[in-house]
Write a structure and sequence with these properties.
Elements: H1 2-12, H2 14-48, H3 51-67, H4 72-83, H5 87-97, H6 103-112, H7 118-129, H8 135-154, H9 175-189, H10 193-227, H11 230-244, H12 252-260, H13 262-270, H14 277-290, H15 292-303, H16 311-345, H17 355-393
Length: 394
């Protein structure tokens, strides 16, 4: 029924659907693909070289007590923070397929390793939408601290159903052991460097093509829901919740849009003139943490290749959104209001509010927007050549 309504809507609103499709394609072509591809390739390359086992041995004393996941989860966590969603889901699924994680460990790990990357928070949200670099500190601190709290909370997931791992008292964590595991993993893989690199490029591009399809689909879906006034209807229910938290009704529409697609929700929230900046940032923080149904559909598609269930991940997103909004409220006074007063009353500007601190994100975001499309084109050409070479050899 839903598919039929969507198909009819595409025929009734062909121009609007095409524009929404182009908007999603542009975002994928200029931003998502060039931002994620290097991290995907590097992560696949590191996995092939056994670096994951090396880091897993080193990080075991940290990850196991905190999050009840093996040390290899530290690698996934770091790559997820650096590259953004859905890198954490992709790496978690890969490690689950290699039996480096149990199902419950994988469900715990994927719940807190999918987050927005700093470049998007500082470049797109703080600077691009709000034109206020100082907001990047608050959004990033609330986002990543909220994700950390989700990891601590999800450590209890499957506690009664999972078999407790037996502790090996003779096992010692040392660099020598870690390098030995790296060497054994490299021998086990057995592929030459060229083969590893080629497979990494092909696997990464395949994943990004899937991600691009979801971005375009949900961009069109969000536009169709708006044209059919379904978004407006859903926002009526949200106004009741917003009234309890003393948020203006005008933010309900950006909130609903953000539940489907992060970028559109953040943009609409920043343009809501009837709301205060504080209220806009709180709603945007929740949207960033919830990550939108578009990202969640990407994660669900990746997890479908394994036995990892999607439900724990979805519940974790609700917790993450709540934590992020809460920490935004807590950090607003000390990290924004007080610092703005200090900046106006003194010529001395705090270190983390100086332009030099943000210049890295400025330059990075501008370079992505300026050269991202060329990078995507070159990468796709390399992918076609590798695929053609692989076919001709068969």
């Amino acid at each position: 029924m839903s598919a039929t309504i969507l198909a009819l809507s595409l025929m009734v609103f062909p121009k609007e659907s095409f524009e929404a499709s182009m908007r999603g394609l542009t975002m994928w072509w200029e931003v998502v693909f060039p931002s994620l591809l290097p991290f995907f390739i590097v992560s696949e390359f590191l996995i092939g070289f056994g670096v994951v086992s090396f880091l897993g041995s080193i990080l075991e004393p940290l990850m196991r007590p905190l999050f009840r996941v093996p040390g290899v989860g530290g690698f996934v966590w770091a790559m997820g923070l650096a590259s953004g969603y859905p890198a954490g889901a992709k790496l978690t699924a890969r490690l689950r397929q290699e039996n480096k994680l149990t199902r419950f460990e994988a469900e715990r790990l994927v719940s807190f390793t999918n987050s927005s990357n700093p470049l998007f928070i500082f470049g797109a949200i703080a600077v691009g939408f709000f034109h206020n670099p100082a907001l990047g500190i608050i959004l990033a601190a609330a986002h990543y601290l909220g994700n950390f709290c989700v990891g601590l909370l999800m450590r209890f997931h499957g506690y009664t159903k999972e078999k407790k791992p037996t502790k090996d008292k003779n096992k010692r964590i040392s660099l020598r052991t870690a390098f030995h595991l790296l060497h054994q993993e490299r021998l086990k893989d057995g592929r030459p460097i060229g083969k590893i690199l080629g497979d990494a490029v092909q696997s990464s591009v395949n994943t990004l093509l899937m991600i691009g399809g979801f971005i375009i689909l949900f961009s069109v879906l969000n536009r169709v829901l708006s044209l059919l006034d379904i978004t407006t209807f859903l926002s009526l229910f949200v106004t009741v919740i917003f009234a309890f938290f003393q948020l203006p009704n005008e933010l309900s529409l950006p909130f609903i849009s953000g539940l489907f697609e992060i970028t559109l929700g953040g943009q609409l929230a920043s343009q809501t003139s009837s709301a205060t900046l504080f209220q806009q940032v709180v709603v945007t923080s929740f949207i960033l943490a919830f990550s939108g149904f578009s990202v969640q559909a990407q994660v669900a598609s990746i997890l479908a290749e394994t036995d990892i269930r999607f439900k724990p991940y979805f519940i974790a997103r609700l917790f993450h959104g709540t934590f992020a909004a809460f920490f935004t409220v807590i950090f607003w006074q000390p990290l924004y209001v007080d610092q703005q007063v200090l900046e106006k009353g003194s010529n001395t500007i705090p270190v983390f509010l100086q332009n030099d601190t943000y210049s890295l994100f400025y330059r990075g975001w501008d370079m992505v927007l300026q050269y991202g499309s060329y990078f995507t084109l070159i990468a796709l050409m390399v992918y076609v050549l590798l695929t053609f070479n692989k076919i001709t050899k068969v």
